[in-house]
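Justification of computing resources. Each target in the renewal requires a structure prediction run like the one illustrated here; the chain below, 291 residues long, is used simply to show the kind of job we budget for.
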Amino acid sequence: MKAIERRIADLWFTEYQTPNLRLGLRIEDVLLNKQSKYQHILVVDTKQYGRVLVLDGAIQLTEKDEFCYHEMMAHLVLCAHPEPKKVLVIGGGDGGVVREVLKHDIVESVTLVDIDEEVIRASKTFFPTVSCALDDERVKIMPMDALVFVKEHHDEFDIAIIDSTDPVDFASGLFEQSFFEDVHAALTESGMMVAQTESPFAEPELLRDAVLGLRHTFERAFLAWGSVPTYPTGLWTYAVGSKKFDPRIQRRSAPTGLKYYSDTMHSLAFELPPFVKEIVNGGNLKEAKGN
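Resulting structure tokens:
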């Protein structure tokens, strides 16, 4: 009788990034798998990228590459603003952006608005190096709808960082011009905002519409880009709106010890590839998506 070969468990997480694109990661362990009031939360340990936080099937961060995203989201605007004392972070319950913001000693307060407290709890439990600044005395956590919050605050913040999830369900409003107008009103006379605006390959229409919305709302609006390996296509964009100062000009040096953002990276991030320029100026969206 032939001996049965040893079977090996082969467990994978697959993110369907677009209808025609998916990313697969080999799982070593499932650490959290639960449904919150707002979304499904999954935390897994993977061979390639360490621990991974997944919301509604979409990767939010991995231990190995989260710094690429969080450093760009925070330092692009904090290094462009001469006195970023009061900072608003919308979304980002994992705490990665807050961690980076507090690397600037000039910051006096950070208000974190995230609708889902379960995400904050999950990050504190499973991602201590990401959530490490959430208990800082300068941080105020507001577990509520950001669309409501910004309507109730005017002329209050120097910086607003929109660390939103994908534009679906409760987060869809965070990509609309009406929301940008409310953020504009919540900022001081020299305020700046930055929002993640997805991949020019995967979501060119969303990218174009977000930039157009900022151009109609803010006195100055520009797009920056960078690399985040586990986000769809690995090429990511950041739309920056400013009431007064040109965000392409770095006014304050980068904090020490960073791994992605740097003084040189600041200006280079605003140098867009020609195909991205074409997208934000209303060019060929089908070509950008490879259709």
